[in-house]
Amino acid sequence: MAIEADLGQPIEAPIPSDKDIEQSIAEAGAATYWIMANHQRVGGAVVVIDEISNRNSLSFFFILTGLQSRGLGLQAWKAIEREYPNTKVWETVTPYFEKRNIHFYVNRCGFKIVEFYNKFHPDPHQVSDQVHKEEDDDEMFRFMKVMGSESDYNSAVYMSGL
């Protein structure tokens, strides 16, 4: 797994947790997708759409480990952007140690890092009993992408609702 390579050691529990994924899927405005390529599932995404403010969030996004670095993630992200053309702002978070994710969101998708959550500045959306049980737990970057006029994207990857 990419996270194990980044940390240099095996992980004991899945990241994100099953509970976090279930809560995200159950959130009001959530839409879940399989990321498909060549008629096969290669990843998935959960977005939370606010039709009133058009400030939307990407809760979860993944490409299967063996299929990363092939452009599938970027194509899938562009498909999500096309699916929600009224979006004014996209937001997401990722753990501080996920260098691959930071590169993807900033250098490939055009997000900006706007906040760093840590024990001195906790994420206000985290459940209080989950925040910083250990010294470096839950250090996260918050990303934001303000949408403007975007050019048309050509993509071989498409999104399929769950």
UniProtKB/TrEMBL annotation:
InterPro entries associated with the record: Acyl_CoA_acyltransferase (IPR016181), GNAT_dom (IPR000182)
Pfam families linked: Acetyltransf_1
Domain N-acetyltransferase residue range list: 1-145
Domain of life: Bacteria
SUPFAM superfamilies, alphabetized: Acyl-CoA N-acyltransferases (Nat)
Cross-referenced PROSITE patterns: GNAT
Gene Ontology molecular-function annotations: acyltransferase activity, transferring groups other than amino-acyl groups
Name listed for the protein in its UniProt record: N-acetyltransferase domain-containing protein
